[in-house]
Fold this protein.
Amino acid sequence: MFQLLFKYPGAVFRKGQFVLLGKWPGWLLVVAMVAAAVGLALLIRWKLRNAAPEVRNWRAWVVWGIQSAFVALVLFLLWQPAILVAELSSQQNIIAVVVDDSRSMSIADSEGKTREAAAVEALEGGVLAGLRQRFQTRLYRLGRELTPADGPREIMPVAPATRIGDNLKRLATETSDLPVGAIVLLSDGGQNSAGGGSGISRDVLQALRNRRLPVHTVGFGKEQSAHDVEIEDVSIAASVIAESRISATVSLTQRGYAGKKAKLTVRDGAKEIAGREITLAADGRMQAEPVFFPAGAAGAKSLTFSMETLSGEENLANNTMTRPIVVSDAKRRILYLEGEPRWEYKFIRRAEAEDPTVQLVSMLRTSENKIYRQGISDPSELANGFPARPENLFSYTGIIIGSVDADYFTPLQQELLREYVDRRGGGILFLGGRFSLSDGGWGASSLNDLLPTILPQGKNNFHRNAATVELTAQGLNSPITQLLDDPAKNAQRWKKLTYLADYEDAGAPKPGATVLADLRAGRRKLPLLITESYGHGRTAILATGGTWRWQMSEALGDLSHDLFWQQLLRWLVAESPGPVVASMPERLLMDEGRVSLKAQVRDKQFQQTTNAHVTAHIVGPQGTDAFIDLTPSGSTPGLYETEWTAEKAGTYLAELTAESAGGQPQELGRDVVMFQREDGVAENFHTEQNRRLLEQLASDTGGRYWTPSELKNLPGDVSYSEAGISVRNTKQLWDMPVVFLLLLGLPITEWLLRRNWGVI
Amino acid sequence: MKCTHIALAILAASAGCAALWAQRTGDFGFGNDDSPTNVKAEFYWSRLAYSTNIASNFGGYGHRWRSSWSRDYPKADRQFLISMHRLTRIDGRPTEQVVTLDSDEIFNYPWIYAVQVESWTFSEKEAKRLREYLLKGGFLMVDDFHGTEDWENFMNGMRLVLPDAEVEDLRSGDEIFHTLYDIDDKMQIPGEQYVWTGRTYEKDGYQPKWRAIRDSKGRIIVAICHNMHLGDAWEWADDPNYPETFASMAFRVGLDYILYGMTH
């Protein structure tokens, strides 16, 4: 219909450039149109006094409008309007027809046929024939790789992955010396890229744009499942502390089960280590569910997160996702400085004595000039008091500062504490007490910056009065405050905990700080546990010295006190880096083996080391065992990197070791990172047609998204492209049928109106 | 009428004398909330008032100022607290606190002191409460009992609390003697009777026994000073006839025991 009225297909107007071929300038056309309209208006107004009464009202302006439009159209035609459009030369160009042959194309949701069968049928039903009338065609299969195909029937949906972006880029690159005029992509859009992303990257789009290659996409498959639950992602730390309580966030979506309950489970091998019932959110809405579970013993683990299968689910394979984690039993040493003997000190030590992953090294000021040390590794440790050198202080992964005046630290030690958090990336926990926080002069000290709260004025903010505790909304979802698995029961448990022996007003939380628990003392509600990220590290305030009552006044065997302290101190140190920090951009490799390994190496003062010798020992499935050297990065001091390929699917463990350079190399440190290659798993996820991606790809490259029912126009539309061998054609617009219709229609309309109004 | 007036006067005078005597020696009560010395603090010197197995006390706490738990009370406690204030950074209340096993209030005082423990006994409920107190992290120091018979009586009570407890002799190198002061050479600390007898021992307790009961992690939960009387040494430290050596040693041991109880 469009072409009948406008003579040319829509692509001409979408892709072409409008021009006026007449000799007179374009602005003159506008002036002429305005002048004609004004002239007509004056003429009508002058004649109106003698006109019939029936048209001496709004009808006169309708007549003016019709006549002005008529004159404007005639003037427009006098300027010779046309479209300039690039058109592929017939029989001189190649059209690349790319068919997705990934496993998701085997889903039978295209009117009873598989997506692949529908695509093949569309090609054989006229698309290929239509294209071949004017172009050469090349047929490709697109899955993990891009491979040429001899005919549509050869294409089978068996590829374990869909790499649309990578393969289109490859096609653009490999055919750079060929006159490829356009790409026709038949797919469900189920992209699963190497980086785990589900979009088309900028460099792919840039490669296509450089060649001005339009991609026409044809979408197959249902755009929405009727009944399905899918795990979208699982977020979990790469490395955790042995026997600690860790958290993961499972992101999921569902369709058809809104409001229903389903069980989320976490398994380590065959053993279920956590499970909880969740209520499914509205259809299509992303839902993030935290789940807490014990890390268990040290070792490399592959955790499986699963959603319970619900009746009638269309895709069961997307209910499970795995994540590799390293559970480390390396002892974290925490330095605890306490300014006066108090019960909190004793009971924190007792709680940490039960934690095999944390060693509490403590200094207690028993009298004005005596310090009692516990947990030291040798008699010389801390013999001279609180460390005053970075190599001594930075060897601890966390610091607790109890009831200690700020003035107890020298200016040098205060600066070291700031650097400890900011540069070294350690964690400091400040406790409430007689000499703590505002009562200890911390608000006026140079370390005020480190504190997560704005301390109150004055020095009488510590009170030996009872205070009860309750979790905040953030506290409900924090692994620090998880005494019980069930969030509701956990919140209740905190409310029922015996009261604190004392409390301190810690002031108002700073912007960016998180309050995990509040205390209630009489009518006052004050923040109790506040955390904050600072520089590369973290700080926290626990505004009391009286949690020991949770140990003495709760029932014998109640673990609330010990569990809280163990979790708080593990949080304090869990992300404190060692001298060597191994990392990789992606720990989960989907259908590919390229691995980028990086190591940040620092010396004992935590300054970047640029002359270290760094090696990686990689152990993997089926006897994979490799040693590779890392080389210094040219851009970042202290960063070493290398690339390696994991050939086989499975779990890999890489231990990175750094040694000092020189005649007698000394080990600077080591770190372990775990990664996993999964083949064929990505195709189980996002199986609905990703129309948005296909539309975006077509739109960004100058192509068009097509549904299978619209394909008869595809061969014609493909012609309008600037890629390949093309000529710019001028399409005259004056002879479009719609122009003649208007030239006739406008006077006829005026005549009919006048007749209707009875003025003829 | 006249006789009645005389009787009333005698009764009033007796009551006044009793009140004056009580004021001179302390109130012997279980705490007085209105007292200006009853301030809130981190550490409360907590003296355990226990039931006794002596028939005259009818199985209860006995008459307050004649019961065995209150020996040297409160002067010993207060003199010790004075030294604690002078020699440590502990924020302690200057007056003592009497605790019992009648209620869970005892769990607010993680360090307790008991004397003349040869006479203590516990009901099942009391024994359970003391057992839980010790296993949760409470610390008990016992003092002022002497000789074989006292030991047996003490252990009879202790077995009600911790049936499987093993008592061990402490060595000089043990941490409890090195928290504030390094006490390597210890001596028998006698009671006030040394002033007029010249003997450091009582009954057949010739040798000082520094003993302890530990929990499953090896931490001392009951520190036992057998054949000694540290409480008297604190109480009579200001008596010119009581040797300073004994008093000093008693203070050092007491402070070490408190700091051990606050750190382990």
